[in-house]
Amino acid sequence: MKTLLALMVAAATALSAPFVHAQALQPPELAARQYVLLDLTTNQTLAERDADVATDPASLTKLMTAYIVFSALRDKKLTLEQTVSVSVRAWDERKGDPSLMFIDTTMKPTVDELLHGMIVISGNDASVALAEAVGGSLDVFVGMMNRQAQAWGLKNTAFKNVTGLTEPGHKSSARDIAVIASKIVRDFPQQYARYYGLKEYTYNKIRQDNRNLLLRRDATVDGMKTGFTDAAGYCLVASAAREYPNLGAGNKRRLVSVVLGTASRDARLSESQKLLNWGFSAFDPVRLFEVGKPIVTPEVWKGASKQAKLGAEGSVVIAVPRGEADKLQTRVERTEPLVAPLAKGQRVGTLKVTTAAGAPVAEVPLVVLDAVEQAGLLGRAWDAVRLWIK
Predict the structure, then answer these.
(1) Of 14-23, 32-41, 62-71, 253-262, the least confident
(2) Smallest Cα–Cα separation from 361: which of 74, 131, 42, 55?
(3) Which one is catalytic: 16, 122, 172, 173?
(4) Going from the N-terminus, what domains does the chain have, and what CATH number goes with each?
(5) Which of 8, 140, 358, 361 is in the most buried spot, having the most CB atoms within 10 Å?
(6) Which pLDDT tens digit goes with each residue over 25-72?
(7) Which is more confidently placed, 172 or 332?
(8) Would residue 155 show up in a list of annotated catalytic residues for this protein?
């Protein structure tokens, strides 16, 4: 029979699910239609407003375009040095939105050059050329984008094109866009560092600035992407990483903000900066459990070892309101009795973090850190008797 054993421990834990909500604090007032602020270090949502409302994503669409291209590079379907033929369809982008790399059908840019053109200067022509190189056609590539969105559970996202030009049915939300951005940072850190922090790019003797001017205003901001259409307003995804002493030397805390529907270029910058600064100053990252260190060591029945080492799969870090770290409590809920064999990584319970008043803060799976084999025949028989008596 399984019961729940509760232990109270004064500590904090990491998260079991992506982007659970941190303890609520009042965020600053932002002049934006929708926004969300994620803590990628702790997997928590620090603040949001209308984050699940579907809206025109504008050029933030190119985040997913880039993710699909990065995936193709990872899978060796193309290389950075590979040259790409520029189609008439890609060249025709100059007839619409002015966001261009200025390629034409006589040119043979490399994949690397096109990625610079799409990410740094938001070139629609570069986006189309890359999509055709990966998918063979725009329709096929858009299908790849939508399948990836579905695989991540992005319920408020549907892509109709690779550039972000306004089109019926082309939509996303602040939360979905934040997920795409976080996937780039986590799944492709080398590509993120290579492209998203560049302040300018020159191709064919034409130098263009990155419209993400936070790269020039805040040294801790190292990406990501701007967007604008009449329907979307001025939008910005920004990512920043700052050092915190309690995370250990060389470890930085990373936040990602998504601000949609502001009234001007300056507004998207100021509102994004305001949100990031608030997230870094209002919350402290707290690390209390390290990788491989047991949190509890309960008794094991019918095992070659008498105790099991239980803990979290990774280091345990959460964001808590500044000054509240020493007031947290952790409750361990686990299967009782624990009966061998127990496999390494096997989940046997949950760590639940709450405030002193009992408000939930975070949860993380409790797993077996070291495997426990079954005892011999006599040991199992003896424990069977003990369990029966118990």
Answers:
(1) 14-23
(2) 42
(3) 122
(4) 3-16+288-389 (2.60.410.10), 20-283 (3.40.710.10)
(5) 361
(6) 889 999 999 999 999 998 899 999 999 999 999 999 999 999 999 999
(7) 172
(8) no
pLDDT for 9: 33
Placement of tokens 């025709």 in the chain = 92
In the numeric block, the tokens 């570069």 are attached to 126
Residues in Cβ contact with 210 at an 8 Å cutoff, skipping those fewer than 6 apart:
120, 121, 198, 199, 200, 201
Average pLDDT over residues 108-130: 97
DSSP structure class, residue 210: -
Tell whether omega for the bond before 109 is within 30 degrees of 0, i.e. cis.
Answer: no
59 noted as active-site residue: yes
The CA angle 225-67-72, to the nearest 5 degrees, is: 145
* 62 in active site: yes
SS (H, E, C) 128-159: HHHHHHHHCCHHHHHHHHHHHHHHCCCCCCEC
The single residue of 16, 59, 182, 239 carrying the catalytic annotation is 59
Lowest mean pLDDT among 145-154, 223-232, 378-387: 378-387
